[in-house]
Amino acid sequence: MFPNKKVQALVGSRVQVEMKGDKNTLEGKLESADDNLNLHLIDTFEIANGVKSRSLGSVVLRGNNIILLIPKGE
Amino acid sequence: MFPNKKVQALVGSRVQVEMKGDKNTLEGKLESADDNLNLHLIDTFEIANGVKSRSLGSVVLRGNNIILLIPKGE
Amino acid sequence: MFPNKKVQALVGSRVQVEMKGDKNTLEGKLESADDNLNLHLIDTFEIANGVKSRSLGSVVLRGNNIILLIPKGE
Amino acid sequence: MFPNKKVQALVGSRVQVEMKGDKNTLEGKLESADDNLNLHLIDTFEIANGVKSRSLGSVVLRGNNIILLIPKGE
Amino acid sequence: MFPNKKVQALVGSRVQVEMKGDKNTLEGKLESADDNLNLHLIDTFEIANGVKSRSLGSVVLRGNNIILLIPKGE
Amino acid sequence: MFPNKKVQALVGSRVQVEMKGDKNTLEGKLESADDNLNLHLIDTFEIANGVKSRSLGSVVLRGNNIILLIPKGE
Description:
The structure is a homohexamer.
Chain A: H1 3-8, E1 14-19, E2 25-33, E3 39-48, E4 51-61, E5 66-71
Antiparallel strand pairs in A: 1-2, 1-5, 2-3, 3-4
């Protein structure tokens, strides 16, 4: 299963996403994803130093700025 | 609804956008958006430390430099 | 009007462009632009701390390294 | 053999991947890879200062943020 | 004339190129350029603090990492 | 000869490659290259402060993260 299909298969479950920049680790429920790995997350919050910080709600992430994505339920 | 369609659906409402770089958080009314997530915002201002700072008016944002986009009216 | 058409419509007028990197704010007259937001500016100068610094003349900017573009005459 | 075919040939074996950002060196078993060098790794852990640190399990990496990839079994 | 055609028209003359990263300002004779703004420069040297530093000879530059390009003979 | 053809013509000879990030200068024998400037190097080592440091062997480099490439035998 190609990486983008792996991500498609995660729609509906929670994922952790590390974005470019210093402190941009987010966790949310994956609402949708496309082949560029653009993501729409809901119930999203930021994670700083391993703990939840800011609650963000609905967030769209630009795929090219994603460093890595980790499924939380596996 | 794919992430770029989610963004299209936000045209006409206010969004907060975090761009690459240290201090580039912007909020404005989404005037238009394309599939690369290039955005045209109007009534835009910068946000620093959670408060409005510089007023920018009409601004075009290059999609690949967007980290994340948060709808403000949801 | 899509964001890249918005930029096309600015050809002939002055724009301010914030590029990636620490100190790359430029202002110039937009001579041409393509759909990747590659720009050709003339009569360009750098802006540092809000004031004109280095004069650059004719400059080509690579679109993917543009953070944001602000029309100066609106 | 073109670079992306070289990577395809590594599916099933362990690779070390250096991502953009300060501390993002990962090692894992390459589960899948596409022509953009998007990667799906399993049994992944972070490497800091040459030693294993955080265990990450299943991870999807965005190809454009990969600096370099080193096969571990050659 | 679109920006990439502007660059094509500079083949054979000297250009200054600012690349991503801290100290990557280069000057050389533009040997070739493509539509992605990938460049081949010859007789290239680095510029640090406004003066020539390291001589590099023949250099290929990846277009997406070019911040800006300035013609030297205009 | 376009820049990517210039790189193709270097297959079989040694090249020095400066990647994004602070300390990523590599030298190796160019085993293959594609039009995105993805590279496969063999007999690769890192260069720090002008001297060889870590030996890396076989390495795949993602083209978009290449700042510049210098042929070593010209």
